[in-house]
Design a protein that fits this description.
Strand content: 25-35%
Structural class: alpha/beta
CATH superfamily: Cupredoxins -  blue copper proteins
CATH class: Mainly Beta
Helix content: 10-25%
Bound molecules: copper (II) ion
Oligomer: single chain
């Protein structure tokens, strides 16, 4: 009996306890001095994990511009709104803050260590500092 209960608890722990939630802040200024920026430039997560973006500072949002094949781009979020997305497909995802993407407020999510769609992401049209930062970030994954 004790063995059976232990097995059940182990199973519950493995199936429920494994996906995690990562919190990313939308910021006017980060500790490293960068302005108009997310708290993480590259979030590396596992398949099934969730990212929650917090409108820690005002005037920002989350707009997805690219992801792996089959990923349906979610509608861009409203300014100052919390956003939560669970990632079920491995690959590289690009998102930006609509008003500040030209200033470089862009970031990547890498799910399951899969960078096979990196070239496709590099072709997403970006302008200004956003373009430069995208090249920098892709060079880091
Ligand atoms: Cu912004």
């Amino acid at each position: 009996m004790k063995f059976i209960l232990t097995s059940i608890f182990t199973f519950l722990f493995l199936s429920v306890g494994y996906s995690k939630e990562v919190v990313i802040d939308m910021l006017n200024k980060r500790d490293d001095g960068q302005k108009m920026v997310y708290s993480q430039d590259i979030a590396k997560i596992d398949v099934g994990d969730t990212i929650k973006w917090l409108p820690t500072n005002k005037g920002h949002n989350v707009e997805f511009l690219g992801g792996p094949d089959g990923f349906e781009l979610p509608a861009k979020s409203g300014l100052n709104k919390e956003v939560s997305i669970t990632f079920d497909k491995p690959g590289v995802y690009l998102y930006v803050c609509t008003p500040h993407k030209v200033m470089g407020m862009i970031a990547l999510v890498v799910v399951g260590g899969d960078v096979s769609n990196k070239d496709a992401i590099s072709k997403v049209k970006m302008m200004g500092r956003g373009k430069k930062k995208l090249a920098e970030l892709l060079g880091q994954i």
